[in-house]
Design brief:
This protein is mainly alpha-helical and 389 residues long. It has 11 helices and 5 strands. The strands form 2 sheets. Strands 1-2-5 form a 3-stranded mixed sheet. Strands 3-4 form a two-stranded antiparallel sheet. A hairpin with a 2-residue loop joins strand 3 and strand 4. It is flat and about 60 Å long.
Length: 389
Amino acid sequence: MDAAPLYDLTPALRLMGMGLVIALAPLAWVWLRSRQATPARRLRALTLLTLFLTFDLVLFGAFTRLTDSGLGCPDWPGCYGKASPVGAHAHIAAAQEAMPTGPVTHGKAWIEMIHRYLATGVGVLIIVLALATWLHWRRGRGAGQHPVHPAWPLATLAWVCAQGAFGALTVTMKLFPAIVTLHLLGGVGLLVLLAAQAERYRQAAGAPVEGLPRGLRALLWLAALMVGAQIALGGWVSTNYAVLVCDTFPTCQGSWWPPMDFAQGFEPWRPLGQSGDGSPLGFHALTAIHYTHRLFAYAVFAVVALLVWRLARAGRLTAQRRVVAALALAQLATGLSNVVLGWPLAAAVLHTGGAAALMTVLAWALCASRTQAVAAQAGAHAPAREVAV
């Protein structure tokens, strides 16, 4: 009798096939729309489309987490060893019958698997983008041109592979808060890399780069770093289900400084709902997680508002400035809605999407600008020139 294989690759291969099918439609759309465009413009169009679909993936990932569908299929990459919930119907039905409101139901299984299908489709697009950029770079370099270096899409490809590994760990480690938070940050980082690539392709096609005074560019960097830290704090709130511990605003539990346990709340490596020693995570720890995110949000909003004001006074990065201002206000509105309205699903998903979009636009602004060096000559200021830093 033949020995059973150590591992069945069929679900993984079928998942990859599904991703390829999903990627064919956007690839065909870019090819039809950009047949007459230069290679740099065609690559930028593909990058922007991949960026849009990745943003949709981040939103759907938030929807998956917020509907408690992260364990809708408790194995990876398939669902009970099958490529879709259809093949796993009997297993899912048994799990749902044993626990009707548990982590495994037919609806949650489909949500989880659709998220995996979309992620695989984005991965295929990034592979195509890396290959196309490498070919364009090789041909352009031989013709004396200066195309975008393939290190950018290759870094993005490596990043999405790591992101896939964190997606697998999210399931296999049963929603470990640190892993889920890193998975969220990985999704935002993927958006940042794609935004940087899109801007590189734009500049390769001849678009100008804006010069910023040194202090203003430093403020732009500060805003981006603070938004990134705030996303990490928000992910920690969501993955520990600490949103509803503070149901009043601007106070928390009717106090400006409620009892909090920061040591337990920010213990990085522990299972969901538990402290490092295996005891249940205390209410004061959840309060510390939530209130830290809220307090830091005040500082982030102040820095972003200052950035928008300084950019407006300088008349720089007009498009990015307006989008940043609108997203910051939207984040304030959705954040308040989560507290005051008791964490409605739409507001919670939009809050995650707004944070990811804000980080993406700040990365776009950083890549579209450089520090402007001003030299003084004989008591007068020389014309500004742009230098890369």
